[in-house]
Specification:
It comes from Denitromonas halophila. Pfam families: Peripla_BP_6. Belongs to the leucine-binding protein family. Keywords: Signal. This is ABC transporter substrate-binding protein. The protein has 14 helices and 14 strands. A seven-stranded mixed sheet has the order 7-6-8-9-10-13-14, sandwiched between helices. Strands 2-1-3-4-5 form a five-stranded parallel sheet, sandwiched between helices. A two-stranded antiparallel sheet has the order 11-12. With 378 residues, it is an alpha/beta fold. It is 46% helix and 17% strand. It is globular. It has two domains: 189 residues, 3-Layer(aba) Sandwich (Rossmann fold); 127 residues, 3-Layer(aba) Sandwich (Rossmann fold), CATH 3.40.50.2300.
Length: 378
């Protein structure tokens, strides 16, 4: 009898040891962006920044005991693929949030599709500053970066303060480019300045010769470059080769490293860019120190930190802060409400602010130029 009891106890213990421990399911976060086409340098930087933040959170135990999983899908900057992949990602992975979509037309198509409303899922940090995607406020969308109108205003004010009165513009033929041009027209009017040439290049194309020639013919004193990614690097090279030495300033959706690599240091030197995120290479905020430390300790040496890396990092950190503030288990609805309650959100010195009537988190803007070393100088 005693022997049978001992045997039963031993069997029970063995079965207990053989049963794997129960873990809370992962919290999945979805990102859809261009990792391989004309905006690939931007998409990869945003993905890298988000992954550094999420990996660090997981090393510290995750959110309410749940690990966070980042699922990144490559849409190659194709609008139809953005919507398709987002729907597939939501259906397949059941994410609690979307962190970053890249592109104005891409984001507009997602909003028009109704996917966010249907899934009731928050979108954090779409990589666009288009004002028409911010007004009216969308209840599921939380913008991290300043708007294009705010960026363009900063550029035009810089030109005005420098005594420049005739300003040209070169932009792409798509909703992104049109939003830049609309902001440019309003900013010139506000400061009493004159338009001097409008060059338009095909969307995502490196065929910029006609656009450059149009701007050159107007002989501007300064030029606003309203392109993004690979086309901007080609524009910088082409304007230099054509002898356009008027100051050129681009918007934030670009990468200085890519510009220098494609255009060469002689053409890139002196090219200005707005930054809507702190540059981790020169910023003294604590969040910049944290990003640099994570990159050095756990990151990929092949990656170079940039304001775009910071944008992905801040977007993911914002999501993590809201998720930690929400009660367990974290749901899409709880996360959305927690985001809206962040007034303010202090991310190690970088401040964002949200409310039920405000989903534009930051107005941060700075202007830097590419120096002789090929790095941005502020």
């Amino acid at each position: 009898m005693i022997q049978r009891i001992l045997s039963s106890l031993c069997l029970t213990a063995a079965l207990g040891l053989a049963t794997p421990p129960t873990h809370a399911a992962d919290l999945t976060v979805l990102q859809v962006a261009d990792y391989s086409a004309s905006r690939a340098s931007l998409g990869r930087a945003v993905r890298y920044g988000a992954s550094l933040a999420i990996d660090e959170a997981n090393r510290k135990g995750g959110v309410h005991g749940q690990k966070i999983k980042l699922v990144a899908l490559d849409d190659r900057y194709e609008v139809e693929d953005t919507v398709r992949l987002l729907k597939e990602g939501i259906d397949t992975h059941s994410p609690v949030a979307i962190v970053n979509i890249l592109g104005t037309a891409n984001t507009a198509a997602v909003l028009k599709s109704g996917l966010l409303d249907e899934a009731k899922i928050p979108l954090i940090g779409p990589y666009t500053g288009a004002d028409h995607l911010r007004t009216p406020l969308h209840p599921q969308v939380f913008h991290v970066r300043a708007s294009y109108a705010e960026e363009v205003e900063r550029i035009v004010l810089h030109f005005a303060n420098s005594g420049i009165k005739r300003i040209g513009i070169l932009h792409e033929d798509d909703p992104f480019g049109e939003s830049i041009h609309s902001a440019y027209v309003e900013a010139l009017k506000a400061h009493g300045l004159e338009a001097a040439g409008r060059g338009i290049s095909p969307r995502g194309s490196v065929d910029v010769s006609a656009a450059v020639a149009t701007v050159m013919a107007a002989d501007p004193q300064g030029v606003l470059i309203g392109t993004a990614g690979a086309p901007t690097a080609v524009v910088v090279k082409a304007t230099h080769a054509a002898g356009l030495f008027a100051p050129r300033i681009g918007i934030s959706v670009n990468d200085a490293t890519q510009i220098v690599k494609t255009a060469g240091i002689d053409a890139a030197r002196g090219f200005g860019m707005v930054s809507v995120m702190p540059d981790p290479g020169s910023c003294t905020l604590k969040i910049c120190e944290e990003l640099r430390a994570l990159h050095e300790a756990h990151g990929d040496n092949a990656e170079q930190l940039s304001p775009n890396t910071m944008e992905g990092f801040i977007s993911a950190r914002l999501m993590l802060l809201a998720a930690n503030n929400a009660s367990a288990p974290v749901t899409r609805a709880k996360l959305r409400d927690a985001l809206e309650a962040l007034n303010p959100a202090n991310l190690s010195g970088f401040i964002l602010s949200y409310s039920p009537t405000r989903h534009n988190g930051s107005t941060y803007r700075d202007i830097g130029v590419i120096g002789g070393s090929g790095r941005m100088m502020y």
